[in-house]
Fold this protein.
Amino acid sequence: MADRASGRGRGTKAGVDRLLRGVGVSSGIAIGPAHVVDAGALLAPEYTIPEDGLEAEVQRFATAADKARRQVRKLKTKSSALPDSAAEEIGILLDAHFAMLSGSRLMRGVEKRIRQDKLNAEAAVQAEITSIAQSFADMEDAYLAARVADVREVGQRLLRNLMQHKYQAFSFLPEGCIVLAEDLSPADTALMDPRRIGGFATMLGGPEGHTAIMARSLGLPAVLGTLGLLQGVQNGDTVVVDGIAGQVCVNPSPDVLDGYRRRRAELLAERAQLKTLRKLPAITRDGTAVTLNANLELPRELDGALEVGASGVGLLRTEFLFMNREDLPDEDEQTEILTRIVASMDGKPVTARTLDIGGEKIATALRGYFSEPTNPALGLRAIRLSLKEPKLLETQLAAMLRAGAHGNLRILLPMISSVAEVRRVREIMATVVRRLRRRGVKIAHPLPKLGIMIEIPGAALSADGLAPFCDFFAIGTNDLIQYTLAIDRGDEQVADLYDPLHPAVLRLVQFTTEAALRARIPVSICGEMAGDPRYTALLLGLGIRELSMAPNNLPVVKRRLRGLDLVEATRRARTIMDQTDQGRIAALLDDFNDAAA
Ligand code: PEP
Ligand code: MG
């Protein structure tokens, strides 16, 4: 990954804490060396090239290098129009770049990495640059140190020619490092391996955006919306990310660092203690069973979900299938991945949601399907895109029907706003079923249950009308809050206005729940509210008996509900629903929670 600390000014001195405030979005404390992501730099995707694709990949790299040489030559021609001394200086620089692009160690190294390591060209360029920069740095020679910038610049040119869009690559970073960036997309975050990355902080982003959700899912401590984050911080500075307090501390003094270390040890001990809850049933003190499911962003979270004793997958966001790649996954690929997930759940239900791309979640391969919307959150997103491009939906439904033959799969539709949309999906599904049967392909029998997300206020208000067309509801409080209160869930500037306890939100949750109970269809909550123990009593008091959340949150929610008297919680929920003031609602809920603690 390219980093140009030089453009960033001097860092703060070690031992002089600089405390920055942001929005803590994922709990835990991470301490490690800073890695600053350069906003202007292109960062490479990583994937493996199959044996029979290696020659084509080498050729792709050669084409990018050809283009780079032409660009450099053109620049040199142009630079000759500059005043003499400038033309000479730039000319020498460009000659050096040209040499690096012609039969140099860089070029040979990249080709070798493609052939031997089966790396894609972008990752091979990135790896080779990192390695050359490191060997120059090891020589401790000022002249060579200055050449590192040139190597990086040539590398960036190659990457630009290879890629059309930006990706992040994190696997070349030092272990345990803290990633600091202006902004990170959900797709960038999906590439972070929690075994290598300690945590991250950004200047932009709000508490319920998908980057925040991804961080929670991966269990990575994270602080978003941190003002002044990138000023005066350098690669290698010690940084603490406190995802609970929503603080970032740069170069903490020894005392402050000790304090963070102690707090981190306490948190780890608490987490270990919570693991003992795994085998205990999720029932309230007065004996009501509650289903606790896991939300999955990425298949690799599956083990974590099983470890904490999830009853099933309440929300499988299938966007991961489309992220960080240039092409679309076909039916077979989707079937294979979904089948693996369904089969590993061993008969436990997996609720797979059809694609919810759009808004802040953009997949490169689908860029051509969108024009630039004025209001992405209100634009062509989720089921709207799937119905506009039925091929996308047909492929997903076919894969889900096929994967359903290997376990217990339910299909969930995002962003439904009308009965007409549900009817249309049912028609498309019937066609797909007929087609698969004609092909003699094994599919789920009986057919999977088809449910909808209730996450648009209009859908919540017509929940009674929608219920007869659906097998279940899943309430998506993240979007429900966003759309009800007109607060962008990913915008740190209005994060303080994003309030799950606003009476309008609670009334919509209540109305939806009651409509589902009357229609005798299951209803769950799978927005982030479900994973916060602060809201457990209120949601159960409103009649919810199924919650789905990031696996890491499941133990704390289980602990909360096991200590809960449901009769009392229902009574408190009634009192709360009579209130119109958010502050009063929060006080009534917090008092109830404190009394139980
Ligand atoms: C929601 O909106 O609450 C939800 C679960 O869906 P997502 O966060 O993926 O939009
Ligand atoms: Mg949603």
Q: What stands out?
A: DSSP finds 21 helices and 16 strands in the chain. The first helix runs from residue 54 to 79.
